Automatic annotation (TrEMBL), chain A:
Pfam families in the cross-refs: Fer4_8
Record GO terms (molecular function): iron-sulfur cluster binding; metal ion binding
Gene Ontology, cellular component aspect: plasma membrane
Chain ranges of the 4Fe-4S ferredoxin-type domain: 53-83, 97-129
Organism, as annotated: Rhodopila globiformis (Rhodopseudomonas globiformis)
Keywords carried by this UniProt record: Iron, Iron-sulfur, Metal-binding
Lineage: Bacteria, Pseudomonadati, Pseudomonadota, Alphaproteobacteria, Acetobacterales
Family annotation (Gene3D superfamilies): Alpha-helical ferredoxin (1.10.1060.10)
PANTHER family per record: HETERODISULFIDE REDUCTASE RELATED PROTEIN, IRON-SULFUR-BINDING OXIDOREDUCTASE FADF-RELATED-RELATED
Name of the molecule in the record: Heterodisulfide reductase subunit C
UniProtKB/TrEMBL annotation, chain B:
Pfam families the UniProt entry points to: CCG (PF02754)
Keyword check for Phosphoprotein: no
Coiled coil: none
PANTHER family registered for this protein in UniProt: COB--COM HETERODISULFIDE REDUCTASE SUBUNIT B 1 (PTHR42947:SF1)
Annotated ranges, domain Cysteine-rich: 8-91, 158-251
Keywords, in A-Z order: Oxidoreductase
Name of the protein: Disulfide reductase
GO molecular function: oxidoreductase activity
From TrEMBL, chain C:
Protein's name according to its UniProt entry: Pyridine nucleotide-disulfide oxidoreductase
Keywords attached to this entry: Oxidoreductase
PANTHER family listed in its UniProt record: ANAEROBIC GLYCEROL-3-PHOSPHATE DEHYDROGENASE SUBUNIT B
GO molecular function ontology, one term from the record: oxidoreductase activity
Pfam families hit by this protein: Pyr_redox_2
The UniProt record lists the keyword 4Fe-4S: no
Residue ranges of domain FAD/NAD(P)-binding in the record: 5-113, 218-331
Species of origin: Rhodopila globiformis (Rhodopseudomonas globiformis)
């Protein structure tokens, strides 16, 4: 019988018989045993509530599995495995093992909000993707994604000074993800710009790296935000049943 | 011509002080050329861009609420933001402070500790630079003021994600004739059309450029941007008009990266809509900051006698 | 006891039923109808054959209209609305837009619903592509005798898609209710299309199929077993066009694959909104609406058929999505509630 859904064949389930003969017929080759191992044997009953406890995940329980999110999804159009509708189903049912198969791509949501625009149940799938990506990190299933590192770098600068200086975010992001700042494509773009900019402008751009933009009298806001974040962080760790030391990502 | 928005508060945001300086320069130049008064928010803070919400959306609400509160304190009833990210976040804060008890509580709590008043939703209207020009001047008003028509310049108008999604934070849109559409926006088409541009039928007006992951997931962003650029080329566009600092720098960066890393060269130029409008109003290329764009449009504009 | 006088507002299935029942029980009825003729949605919107009787609406509901029009105890005001309503149970006074003033012991509101206007969902193409139509329009194609044709060029459609839950169960547009009957009506329409156009294919895009109760057999299964209507689990995200045919986009959630499939005609199974005039009706009659905007019902165990105001009763789709058969039953039930209230000692009614 032909296999209609090739996606159901998984590498770990393939058994190779170098030479196999069944009643005189040579049937050597790859055998998929997916039917046997696909039996569901348990549910993670905490998963939905844990993800709902993280910012953005609040409305996951509303989902009725219509697929509008997946169909409009920007990332799904270029990566078929990126399927918010399916992931929401897995989370709600508690099929953790299935979800973990896609843990390395789940953070790639680009926040285009097409899903949230179309969702008839107002699940806010974009928020659920963020919450799930954080859940994976907090639970130790994945290291912090490049996106999380970038967002943290960016947010921390805002929390500290009230404003963001893009050059600084860029430098720190490249440093913390171990990439060289001198990417050839970035360099050629900057060289093009430099050849057109007057000296005064260049000086201004250079200076902003030294004179960091700031919001004045920000210290009280900073303290209030820090206090809020600490309290939220504690609440999140409690909701995820983590001990005090675990999951301190902010 | 209506008398609305003749004087508004101006929220440039961080990007317009950095990579998108050309957007700030051209917005201010256009305001001056049109005789519209804009007053920069005093001591504003970052709106949180697309990043703070990943930590906690309620903090983004606080950040925007503080800015709205400043506009109110300065006596303004409208705040204009050219950057889609800033515009979106101000709108989102307005919506959340009307509808989400947890956001209301968080905003109150942080504002109180930070020693300033909470923002009362409904006090200040957030508008985009497009709303501002369209309602304060209008197409007829623009036509009367055009000094150097864009005369047939083929433009693909690119609105991006944050200008119209999700729809519930933009209650004034989708209200029939005269209002903006969240599905097929047209305000930029209207404005640039009045300036003489030929708007090409561009199906990716609200496609995503991957701006949230411009650096953290560059390959995805490059693929998304190349899709936009090649479609604009195929539609015969000379230039993509932008209205968002994130989109604009994303398109520029990944046009370069697409060519250097993916080997895919695209020809379409990228300019802020305020730059094109400013040129039509008779401003020079330098006055609207064409030299500050990473994407080099000087030759293309010169060949057409613009700027 | 002198004969009672009852005001019935609206002449759809519920109003016709209430008016007839009250007159038959000896009351004098004043029937006020906003339109220039009686019959309500089934007649005004041109429904074809009704669920579940398969009788033509013009015969079935037309028969109810004739019965009311021929009843001397029923005084009919067409093209009229109630502008003012005051008093209390046993002693109401209503002023009509035609200048007449009516005395009434009680009133029954049978003010019905409004079909959802699909223009609020631009992504599904209604008002943009002529071949995107509503279930109401297909009913009219059948009832007028014109047959099912693509409005753009009059061709017979090869392939028809019916989208369920248009204007129902959608928080984006503030409609959180199920409109109850659209699934069954859609299955009915699908079978009628397959009968009229045997070469056509009909697909129903669903999230859940709610052909409730006894409709399971003759609609849900018969449409599949006898008429080969196909049910696909997907909520369509967008209706587009390739210039020639309509293109449906969505995710087939059972096979986890995107759909981009051409159709000749797309039928939107439109839901039942609260009557657009409900806010006005509520203020004239001094009654409350529920959170969705339908007329709020009194507690069913103690005061079935009642509203928030003693002496003002309600029946049919005014209180929420309702079938025609049940609207008729509720009209009759409200009539009994009226008669019972008027026989009840006043102090008891006040409790």
């Amino acid at each position: 019988m032909p296999i209609h859904e090739k996606s159901l064949i998984r590498p770990e389930n393939i058994i190779r018989h170098e030479s196999m003969n069944l009643q005189g017929v040579d049937v050597s080759g790859d055998w998929s045993t997916f039917i046997g191992s696909r039996t569901i044997t348990d549910y993670n009953e905490d998963m939905q509530d844990e993800i709902a406890a993280l910012p953005g995940g609040e409305y996951i329980h509303r989902c009725w599995q219509c697929g509008s999110c997946t169909n409009t999804c920007t990332v799904n159009a270029i990566e078929a495995r990126f399927n918010p509708r399916y992931w929401i189903y897995l989370i709600r049912i508690g099929l953790e093992e299935e979800l973990l198969r896609d843990k390395d791509i789940l953070w790639q949501c680009v926040s285009c909000n097409k899903c949230t625009y179309t969702c008839p149940r107002d699940v806010v799938p974009e928020g659920v993707m963020k919450a799930t990506a954080h859940w994976l990190e907090l639970k130790g299933h994945t290291p912090d994604s490049p996106s999380t590192i970038f967002d943290r770098e960016f947010s921390n600068q805002i929390f500290a000074t009230g404003k963001v200086e893009e050059g600084r975010v860029l430098r720190r992001f490249f440093a913390s993800t171990g990439q060289a700042l001198r990417q050839p494509w970035l360099e050629s773009m900057v060289i093009g710009l430099v050849s057109r900019l007057p000296v005064k402008m260049l000086l201004r751009l250079g200076l902003s790296a030294v004179l960091r933009p700031k919001t004045r009298k920000w210290s009280k806001s900073r303290a209030a935000i820090t206090d809020y974040l600490q309290q939220q962080g504690r609440a999140e760790r409690r909701a995820l049943h983590l001990s005090a030391g675990e999951g301190t990502h902010v | 011509m209506t008398q609305a928005y003749q004087k508004v508060a101006y929220y440039p945001g961080c990007a317009l002080e950095g990579t998108a300086h050309a957007y700030d320069r051209s917005t201010r130049a256009v305001a001056k050329a049109l005789g519209l008064e804009i007053e920069e928010l005093q001591n504003w803070n970052c709106c949180g861009a697309m990043e703070v919400k990943s930590t906690d959306p309620k903090l983004q609400t606080y950040l925007s609420a503080r800015n709205l509160g400043i506009a109110a304190k300065m006596g303004h009833t409208a705040v204009m933001a050219p950057c889609n990210g800033c515009y979106h976040n101000l709108k989102k804060a307005e919506y959340d402070l009307r509808n989400d008890p947890a956001s209301i509580e968080t905003e109150k709590r942080i504002s109180t500790k930070a020693g300033h008043a909470s923002y009362q939703p409904g006090t200040v209207e957030t508008i985009h630079a497009l709303d501002w020009i369209k309602k304060a001047i209008g197409e007829d008003g623009l036509r009367a003021r055009v000094k150097k028509s864009l005369s047939g310049l083929k433009v693909a108008n690119y609105y991006g994600c944050m200008y119209s999604r999700p729809r519930h934070i933009f209650p004034e849109k989708d209200k029939g004739p005269g209002s903006e559409s969240t599905l097929k926006p047209h305000f930029m088409d209207d404005v640039l059309g009045a300036a003489g541009a030929v708007n090409v039928e561009f199906p990716l007006k609200t496609a995503c450029c991957g701006g949230a992951h411009t650096l953290s997931d560059s390959d995805t962003s490059t693929r998304l941007v190349l899709n936009i650029l090649t479609t604009a080329d195929a539609c015969g566009a000379d230039v993509i008009a932008t209205e968002c600092a994130t989109c604009h720098s994303g398109l520029e960066m990944h046009q370069s990266r697409g060519e250097k890393v993916f080997g895919k060269k695209t020809n379409v130029k990228i300019l802020y809509f305020t730059q094109l409008l400013g040129l039509a109003l008779g401003l020079s290329a330098r006055q609207v900051g064409v030299h500050e764009n990473f994407s080099d449009s000087v030759g293309m504009l010169r060949a057409r006698g613009l700027g | 006891m002198s004969e009672s006088r009852v005001l019935v507002v609206g002449s759809g299935p519920a109003g016709l039923s209430a008016a007839h029942a009250l007159a038959a029980a000896g009351s004098r009825v004043t029937l006020v109808e906003k339109a220039d003729r009686l019959g309500g949605a089934p007649i005004l919107s041109g429904y074809a054959r009704l669920v579940p009787s398969h009788e033509w609406a013009r015969d079935a509901i037309g028969g109810m209209v004739a019965r009311v029009e021929g009843n001397q105890r029923i005084d009919i005001h067409r093209s009229a609305v109630v502008e003012n309503f005051e008093g209390s149970l046993g002693n109401f006074r209503a002023k009509l837009s035609n200048g007449q003033v009516i005395g009434a012991d009680a009133a029954v509101l049978c003010t019905g619903f409004t079909h959802f206007d699909s223009v609020s969902k631009p992504e599904w193409g209604f008002g943009i592509y002529p071949d995107v139509v509503t279930t109401v329009q297909v009913e009219q194609m059948f009832s007028s005798g014109a047959g099912v044709r693509c409005p753009s060029d009059g061709r017979v459609p090869d392939r028809v898609a019916i989208l369920l839950c248009v204007g129902s169960r959608d928080r984006q547009i503030g409609r959180e209710w199920c409109s109850k009957i659209c699934c069954t009506v859609s299955a009915n329409i699908a079978m009628e299309i397959r009968e009229a156009l045997p070469k056509s294919s009909v697909y129903i895009y669903y999230m859940d199929v709610r052909t409730f109760g006894l409709y399971e057999g003759p609609y849900y299964w018969e449409s599949q077993e006898e008429h080969r209507v196909k049910y696909i689990k997907a909520r369509i995200a967008e209706v587009a066009s390739d210039g020639k045919r309509l293109i449906l986009k969505g995710e087939d959630t059972l096979v986890k694959r995107p759909i981009t499939i051409p159709f000749d005609m797309v039928v939107q199974a439109v839901g039942m909104d609260p009557n657009v005039d409900n806010v006005h009706i509520a203020s004239v009659f001094g009654i409350q609406l529920d959170k969705y905007g339908y007329v709020r019902k009194a507690p069913v165990y103690s005061a079935a058929g009642g509203t928030s105001r003693p002496g003002v009763f309600v029946a049919g789709a005014a209180t929420g999505p309702e079938t025609i058969d049940d609207s008729i039953a509720q009209g009759q039930s409200a009539a009994i509630a009226v008669l019972a209230a008027m026989r009840m000692p006043v102090q008891e009614a006040a409790e």
